[in-house]
Amino acid sequence: MSSNGEPTSFESQDSIPIIDYSLLTSSNANDRSKAVQDIGRACEDWGCFMLVNHGVPETLIQEMMDFSNQFFNTTAEEKLEFEAHGVLDPIRCSNRINLAHQNKSMLWREYLRLIVHPDFNCPHKPPGFREVAFDYVKRTRAIAMELVKGVSESLGFEASYMNEELNLDAGFQLLAVNHYPSLSDVDISRGLVEHTDHGLLTLLYENGVPGLDVLVNGRWICMGGVPNAFFIINADHLEIFSNGKYKSTFHRAVVRDERKRMIFVNTNGPSLDTIVGPSSRLIDGEKRLPRYRPMKFIEYLECQIKHVTAGKHPFEEVRIHI
């Protein structure tokens, strides 16, 4: 910790776990078992890991980057059609970046946020964006669901247990495209204040411009440096369902480069009407008490908006102090 009580920061991720996705999907039982064990250790000890050999073509990712750039380069008037209003708007866009404001708690980004499951939504412009985004979402969702199977097994459950308990076939999935200005555009180092995500696991992919920090054991670690890797981060409902074994991970975006930064964020959660609490298999009388009270997922989303706006964390509503 620094002298002012803030977590210290350093620019290295040398020991952050790297998981080989091809081992998780391997037909070799030993390879898969090792991948499951590695995922469990990463979720418990780090709350995040890098995922390589995931099979999403780099050409598809580049197409997503190109179309996203085209979207953000349209005029403010054109983007008004998708202006953000409510948390369940199928398509939400915000370009209210106040370049004159020096308040470091401001969210210095432009974003496009899409509900992509159980129903797929995407802007109809630029032409071709919808088709490419659909392919990207289909592939990344398959990765997320396979990772959840691995997480389920790492907790001692069957591979299908979390999917069935949380109704993930009808799960609520978002794709957010975050566009950050360069240092030459804003005289400020903050990109997005520290926060955690709703859902189980968050998949992130950036355009090669570093700026993602994760908080591990009181230290901010800058992620990056592994080509064509997804960053996987524990989210709130993984902590709740695992009864605190796999902690949700605080992360932030920091503008520290002269290049503009683009990042894709996939959040993956249960269905909106699923009530999420600690797994009944992890509760054992007085020995293992529940640490979180159950809450319907849609109510948690609404609670998250309310608390983040007030500078608080939604866990204040669900955490049980033992």
Automatic annotation (TrEMBL):
Family the entry assigns: Belongs to the iron/ascorbate-dependent oxidoreductase family.
Q: What is this protein called?
A: Fe2OG dioxygenase domain-containing protein
Q: Does the keyword Iron apply?
A: yes
Organism of origin: Tagetes erecta (African marigold)
Q: Which terms in the Gene Ontology molecular function aspect does this entry carry?
A: metal ion binding; oxidoreductase activity, acting on paired donors, with incorporation or reduction of molecular oxygen
Q: Which InterPro entries match?
A: DIOX_N, IPNS-like_FE2OG_OXY, IPNS-like_sf, Oxoglu/Fe-dep_dioxygenase_dom, Plant_2OG-oxidoreductases
Domain Fe2OG dioxygenase, chain residue ranges per copy: 171-270
Q: Is the keyword Nucleotidyltransferase assigned to this protein?
A: no
Q: Which UniProt keywords are given for this protein, alphabetically ordered?
A: Iron, Metal-binding, Oxidoreductase
What SUPFAM superfamilies would the database entry show? Answer: Clavaminate synthase-like (SSF51197)
